[in-house]
Amino acid sequence: MHAIYRMGSLRTDRLTLVISSFAALGTALILLRVAHGVGVSGDAKFYLELARAFSQGEPGLQWILGQVPQLTWGDYLLWEDETPLPQPGSWPLLYSALLAAGGGFAFDARDVAGPFNAVAFGLTIFAAGEWMRSAVRSPFLVVVGCAAILFSVTLSFWASWAFSEVTFILFSTLALLHADKFLRTRDLASLIWAAAFTALACLTRYPGIVLILALVPLMMLRRWPDTTNKLKHVGLFLFVSIGPLFLWLLRNYLVSGTLTGPRGNAKGGDIVTQIGRGLSSVEGWVPLLSDIRSWLLPFDIWTERIMGAMLAGAFLVALGAVILWAVTRWWRTGASEQPYSCLAVAGVYAYFHLAFTVVNTGLGNVTLTSRQFLPAFVPILIAIVVLVDIAIRHRSKLASPMWVGNVFANRTFMRGGGQNG
């Protein structure tokens, strides 16, 4: 344990260099994975075709206005029988717009998607590393956290496909990082950055709304000398973060009659099934978890759904208890003390996202996959790093049996009205 904190002698600029090295390795890893082409399937086809429409100018404008532009699948021979952009479109436009802009409106979106996702993956590692550095004392734990993101099988897998998950995770991580700083320092610039990245996350994927649902209650819990000033800051955050999404939802309603556009007919199953699938998604973050679970509780075809739901439910209850403790400690310290501020922000968002995904896919009858749960990976990982750091800080108290004696002594003292014997 002492070796972990002896690494604390690392200078700040050297630790930044280490974090940057992990980010560069992450970018290189994804570039190697997409060297022969980025993965394309399902929604990815529409992301790429919409990016091509934006590159052509007029077709992109037609799509925004709710028309159906005439496009071709280009070199995708397997898609000849499908109609590109068959309906006005309901998914947020930002990822496709970024692909078009990233290619200078000249390169094909499929050639841009791989390098774009690689950069987003690397920046996610860097942002997460900087957030962990601000919250924990041990540089060693920061390095371990960055390595866990770098070697995450599920995250790197989806970064190799033309999906918006990695871009969404980057914006979410940056929003949480700046929100944490604002809650500790009440710095107005941090609030604006948090709101801006939240808005970008909402325009990348609709679950970005979870950022607002998680951060606004924390802002309201934050102790302020002036309640009016607090409400002004919360109002500013809501205006900046939800304004662009409101305009996009209004556009969807005008062109399709629904806020999020027409939905598919995918069959997801009931909420119990979704929770069981959620457990499999969480196991996919670290394959060793699946091996351990299979060894301890070997499921068969008849018990997998129920047992998976029970384990996932126990996980959510345990996570909720830790988050409640962190938020309580964070509130008692005036919301300005690390690492409890980071733990509260990361934990509340992760819990909200997991619960939102299970309920939303269950009610919407949409199959829950590892893609939907993936945005919770980075904040949960950061929360675990912070908890380990807290445990190491207080290792002497936890290792000593004296604290148990003190608890019983205090209870005896209270029963005896403060008298000995």
Q: Mind explaining what this structure looks like?
A:
- By secondary structure, the protein is mainly α.
- The protein has helices at 2-6, 12-33, 43-56, 58-64, 94-102, 109-135, 139-150, 153-159, 165-185, 188-204, 209-221, 227-256, 271-285, 287-296, 304-332, 340-364, 370-373, 377-393, 395-399, 402-415.
- Helicity, as a percent range: over 70%
The counted number of beta strands is 0
Mean pLDDT, all residues = 78
Distance between the termini: 40 Å
Number of helical stretches of at least 4 residues: 20
Whole-angstrom Rg: 24 Å
Oligomer designation? single chain
Query: What's the helix-strand series?
Result: HHHHHHHHHHHHHHHHHHHH
Question: Which structural class do you get from the secondary structure elements?
Answer: mainly alpha
Fraction in beta strands: under 5%
Quick structural gist:
72% of the residues lie in helices and 0% in strands. It has 20 helices and no strands.
Topology:
Layout: H1 2-6, H2 12-33, H3 43-56, H4 58-64, H5 94-102, H6 109-135, H7 139-150, H8 153-159, H9 165-185, H10 188-204, H11 209-221, H12 227-256, H13 271-285, H14 287-296, H15 304-332, H16 340-364, H17 370-373, H18 377-393, H19 395-399, H20 402-415
Helix pairs in contact: 2-6, 2-7, 3-4, 3-5, 5-6, 6-7, 6-9, 6-18, 7-18, 9-10, 9-11, 9-16, 10-12, 11-12, 11-16, 13-14, 13-15, 13-16, 15-16, 16-18
